[in-house]
Amino acid sequence: MTAATEVPAGRHGDGAAPVIFALATGAGRAAIAVMRISGAGSDAILRSLCGGLPEPRRASLRGIWRRDADGGQGVLLDRAVVLWFPGPNSYTGEDSAELHLHAGPAVISGVADALVALGARPAEPGEFTRRAFASGRLDLVQAEGIADLIDAETEAQRRQALAQADGAQSRLYEDWAARLRTALAHQEALIDFPDEDLPPEVEDELLGTIAGLRDEMQAYLDDGSQGERLRRGLVFAIVGEPNVGKSSLLNALAQRDAAIVSSRAGTTRDAIEVRVVLGDAPVTLVDTAGLRETEDEIEAEGVRRALFHVKQADCVIHVFSGAAVPDKVGPDSIMVCNKIDEVAAPPGITGISVRSGEGMETLRDVLAQRARDLTQGRAAAPLTRARHRAAIEETARHLARAADDAWPEVRGEEMRLAMRALGRLTGAVDVEALLDTVFGQFCIGK
Fold it and tell me: Is residue 359 marked as binding?
């Protein structure tokens, strides 16, 4: 190769994507840091760093070197476990490698500098997974499942995200797409051969398929947003009149002093939020200002914000004390009578004493069951994002129009629009702007 055509190991003159690298492990003091490398040219970089390629998919202890400009041995940066994954049998579908380094900042910095010198560049957020999508290793729905798996806080979130990453949703959507493709082929036959006296059962079967798909999608959409709620977490608002123990209840459920507690009415002026886990779902508890008429401008604003949180909440915990049950703030409020060490709770109402702890385990069970009811349905592959819901709603609308239209050409166009909407869901059609949004939410190194 002449001087005019020479390029570094990680760059290519044929327009191929450059080699990228990033830490796959978090920042902070640790024993091991995993550096991921991917792209055409990773083999040349690995040979330069450690003197040769390990056997594919077998861990090998190697010295990691920063070579001299003249190709000499250079400086030993670390002794690390090296893994080599030749494409297409890798996460990204490209030639890839992992360096399991000692996690000292000097080691990481030195290896990163050596990679840049060899022509690689730092990866952008989500770039490894985006390359996996581009190479067909996974679809867009699976990629979003991987992002959710990284962010999972609870066991239920982990199960849901792992099922999505493993393709549970994608298999359902692909089944719909395959049936729709078959129906569209039959519709095209009816349009192209109107004088061929095709059997009437062809159109009957076509209309039956369209109606069946539309009904399946409508039933799938009617899920109470359980998967979406589990993914983002729930909001439980604690409301009630002043001085009934709302802040004390928040502290008891959070098991720490998150809110100021005082016998003076109106202590809480603004909403206080605490994240807990109830029923294997992440729940944000919101302690709100006491609901009452007041001339105090600041307290009145607190009451207004409390009512706003009631409207936004997935569940309202309505706390009161005494024998008289107040009117519910929301139709699905959980009524809780506090201070049962002073006055017994009315019949059928959950009674507690935050002061003594009496009834608190029962209340936690009630709240956990409500969280499960709101997040854990029967669907094996629940909807998890508003984007998915919007795409399926659009698909169902086009199918409904196709079923209602007697003109074959119009019906065929509606079916094609349905196919396009379903294709955008998994990334089977051009969705470049959408890809930037989806993969931009990933962390560096994934």
Answer: no
What number is the average pLDDT over the span 76-83? 96
Say if residue 328 carries a ligand binding annotation.
no
HSE (CB half, 13 Å, CA atoms) of 411? 22
Task: Report the distance separating Cα 119 and Cα 116, nearest Å.
Answer: 5
Q: Say if CB 287 and CB 259 are below 8 A apart.
A: yes
What is the residue whose two structure tokens read 């001299």?
A: 68
Q: Does 288 appear as a known binding residue?
A: yes
The rounded distance, in Å, linking the Cα atoms of 248 and 121 is 53
265 is in an annotated binding site: yes
446 is in an annotated binding site: yes
DSSP string, 344-362: PPPTTSEE--TTT-TTHHH
Determine if residue 350 is labeled as part of a ligand binding site: no
Q: What amino acid occupies position 148?
A: D
Residue 93 known to bind ligand: no
262 is in an annotated binding site: yes
Q: Give Cα separations from 16 to 36, 78, 123 (angstroms).
A: 19, 30, 15
Residues 319, 310: Cα–Cα separation, whole Å: 13
Which token pair is 15? Answer: 């327009």
Per-residue pLDDT of 26-65, as tens digits, reads 888 889 999 999 999 999 999 999 989 999 999 999 999 9
Annotated binding-site residue? 75 = no
89 assigned binding-site residue: no
d(CA 270, CA 35): 45
Question: What does the pLDDT average to over 395-422?
Answer: 90
* Domains in the chain with CATH codes: 20-123 (3.30.1360.120), 140-223+385-439 (1.20.120.430), 234-375 (3.40.50.300)
Q: Are strands 121-122 and 20-23 parallel, antiparallel or unpaired?
A: parallel
Alpha-carbon span 168 to 37, nearest angstrom: 29
pTM: 0.80
User: Residue 55, exposed/middle/buried by CB under 10 A (0-12, 13-18, 19+)?
Assistant: exposed
263 is in an annotated binding site: yes
The answer on whether 289 is annotated among ligand-binding residues is yes
- Binding site annotation covers 182? no
